[in-house]
Write a structure and sequence with these properties.
196 residues; Peptide Deformylase; 29% helix
């Protein structure tokens, strides 16, 4: 089932999400709904706060990036095969010199900006069967994971912009929170929820 994506301005996007237990109610169904929602909006990642739940789950599928002509064969293979659910994740380490990449977010449609992130991460998480993993990722895979990880920490990519960039997009962000935006996927807007 495709769920509505929570828009910028909703307090759930600012909460540090809570860990969940293996017996979390309807977990498999929630994960399937998140996949359906992400694919329905042509995303490469989605975190539980983006569907209104302040819990530490996110999922990524980086295969759309594998079509980039400038990537090496190794990078393409890694991106093609990265389709995972991350539960109760913790980034243990981020390494290397920060690099810029143009990011967007399903909760913040029509805004894309260059964001600086470290190129390599080490992350510990549980998969959907609650098996524990500790893995390293780099390049675009690491970036997508960091973006989604930020969501479960209550951080948005716009928080990482310079104060000038933030001022330049302030009006657009206000319009998103008021529902004054056209998107081709279901969204839930905080201002409309209050009945304004």
């Amino acid at each position: 089932m495709v769920l509505p994506i929570t828009a910028y301005g909703d307090p759930v996007l600012r909460k540090k999400a809570k860990d969940i237990e293996q017996d979390y109610p309807n977990l498999k169904e929630l994960i399937q709904n998140m996949w359906d929602t992400m694919y329905g909006a042509y995303g490469v990642g989605l975190a539980a706060p983006q569907v209104g739940l302040p819990i530490r789950i996110f999922l990524v599928d980086t295969s759309p990036f594998a079509e980039d002509e400038e990537l090496t064969e190794k990078e393409k293979k890694e991106l093609e095969s990265l389709k995972k659910v991350f539960i109760n994740a913790t980034i243990l380490e981020d390494m290397g010199d920060e690099w810029a990449f143009n990011e967007g977010c399903l909760s913040i449609p029509d805004i894309r900006e260059d964001v600086f992130r470290k190129p390599k991460i080490k992350i510990e998480y549980f998969d959907e069967d609650f098996n524990k993993h500790t893995e390293e990722y780099d390049g675009l895979a690491a970036r997508v994971i960091q973006h989604e990880y930020d969501h479960i920490e209550g951080i948005l990519f716009t928080d990482k912009l310079s104060s000038l960039k933030k001022r330049l997009i302030k009006g657009k962000l206000a319009n998103i929170s008021k529902g004054k935006i056209q998107v081709d996927y279901r969204m839930k807007f905080p201002e409309l929820k209050k009945g304004r």
